[in-house]
Design goal:
Structural class: mainly alpha
Distance between the termini: 68 Å
Shape: elongated
Radius of gyration: 20 Å
Order of helices and strands: HHHH
Strand content: under 5%
Number of strands: 0
Number of domains: 1
C-alpha cells in the first residue's frame, strides 16, 4: 500500500487533466468549428443560388447557414484565444483529424436543420 501512495501525485494528475481538457476544448472544438464554418458557407451559397431560382427553397438554406456560422464562431473562440496568446493551438498528443468525419457530422446537422426550417417556414 505504501508504494502505491508514494507513486501518486495529485497535483501532477490534475495538471495533466487540465492540459488534456485545454487541448480538447481549444484544438478539437476549433477544428470541428472550422469544418462546420466551411459547411455553413457552402449552405449559404447554395441558398443564395436557390433563392434566385426558387425563393421558397432558398430561404431555409440561408437561415441554416447563418445559424450554423454563428454557432461555429462561438465554438472557435477558445481556439482563437489560444492562437492569439500562445501563437499555436495546444498539443493534443496522438490526436489526428479526420476531415471526412467532421464534414459528414456537420452535413447531417445541416440536413436536419434545413428540414426543420422548411417545416417551420412552409407550414
Amino acid at each position: 500500500m505504501d508504494a502505491i501512495s508514494e507513486g501518486f501525485n495529485l497535483h501532477q494528475t490534475l495538471a495533466m487533466i487540465g492540459q488534456a481538457f485545454k487541448a480538447v476544448v481549444c484544438n478539437v472544438f476549433f477544428d470541428a468549428a472550422l469544418h462546420g464554418l466551411a459547411i455553413a458557407v457552402l449552405f449559404a451559397v447554395i441558398g443564395f443560388i436557390l433563392l434566385k431560382r426558387k425563393p421558397k427553397i432558398g430561404k431555409p438554406f440561408i437561415s441554416v447557414g447563418k445559424r450554423l456560422s454563428i454557432f461555429c464562431g462561438i465554438l472557435m473562440v477558445p481556439g482563437l484565444i489560444s492562437l492569439i496568446i500562445a501563437g499555436h493551438l495546444p498539443s493534443t498528443g496522438v490526436f489526428s483529424i479526420n476531415s471526412l468525419g467532421f464534414i459528414v457530422f456537420w452535413s447531417l446537422i445541416c440536413v436536419h436543420l434545413s428540414a426543420e426550417e422548411m417545416n417551420y417556414q412552409w407550414f
